[in-house]
Please model this.
Amino acid sequence: MSGCQLAVRGATLPDGRGKGRRVDLLVARGKVLELAPAAGKTPAGEAEEIDASGLVLLPSLTDAHTHLREPGYEYKEDIASGLSAAAHGGFGNVMCMANTNPVNDSASVTELMLDRAKDSWPRGPRLFPIGALTRGLAGRELAPMAELAEAGCVAFSNDGVPVSSSEVMRRAMEYASDLGRRVIDHCEDPSMNPASGVNDGVLSGRLGLDGQPDVAETIQAARDVLLAEYLDLPVHLAHVSCRRTVELIAWAKSRGVRVTAETCPHYLLLTEERAAGFDSLAKVNPPLRTRDDVLALRQAVREGVVDILVTDHAPHADCEKEVEFDAAPCGVCGLDTALALTWTLVREGELTAGDLVRLWAEAPCGLFDLPLNRFRPGDPADFVLFDPGRSWLVCPDSLHSKAANTPFLGRTLEGRVRAHFLGGRKIV
Ligand code: DOR
Model:
């Protein structure tokens, strides 16, 4: 076919609950030329041919919540290593949080992030910084949101540092909306054992740790939902972890409130029991919750009550995590493992492959207005060839992040990215 640069033959494209259909993908000038039934023998002329039989064809994924630590904490991660983890993990769009040092509350920090991304991964993954909601993330004075949007920030968040003032949150939602951006709120009542990293309950009692109750999340989420309704403006709730917040979101959506939400693979796969034995790899904010919360979250992502999945990739150095539980920082890294972990849920029948595509590509790109490949002619040829049969051990050597602070360390996962293309060019 004239102009075709690449022909990917015989991959399986997921479709809803079924086994998917075998397709040939033809690419020209960085865009999708055609998606045809496999073995259709669509002539590809001089194009490079890839035999993708046995591989799953996915659009390149979007992670709307990562921490890449640069500037300021490059010993944990930097933009080059974070984007390497993204590229190998199947993520072509990466939104990074503002809790760097200095905080991303000025155009110069946003520009530095974008320059670092362009220098280290010129062909992508694409970086989309999230601007700070308040100066220095201090929660008092709004950050220069127009300047940040102009510099390239695609959303605003005080991630990691809850905004306790409802008035500040209200103004932030108003300004963000004027700029065509969304506020992403880390919901946590700061008066209730903030960032303790363990759920309040029988387990925290047994361990003698100050647990954080799930209601600390839901209280702030309720405040945000009520503001969103009052203002008739959107708000996006970060890393939702419990049934109570899911029920609040369902109630709000039924009233027409413009609330959206995200959760992470670790909240769908692990319970608080993972922290028994004081394992700081399971220390994360919000904390891992109970089996009942896991079940509620699984249902919520299936039904779209929780709209998207994110990694909340939060790399920390080994020496920071290898201390007593109380002293360790919260966070798990996730860019390398997210797709295989979500595939676990697909294999177990908890999600369909179609859900995976919705939760990791279609919905986040829709929410944050990012480039998306729906495999229609003219779409960006951004795609992943995923090998569902390839098992691999989660260990420092198999991760591309600088960090290895994942509660899945030592686990064998099934499913790995075989190749990742952006704009029709292979990036890994
Ligand atoms: O566990 C977490 N770690 N939760 C957050 O909200 C922030 C993150 C970090 O930056 O380490």
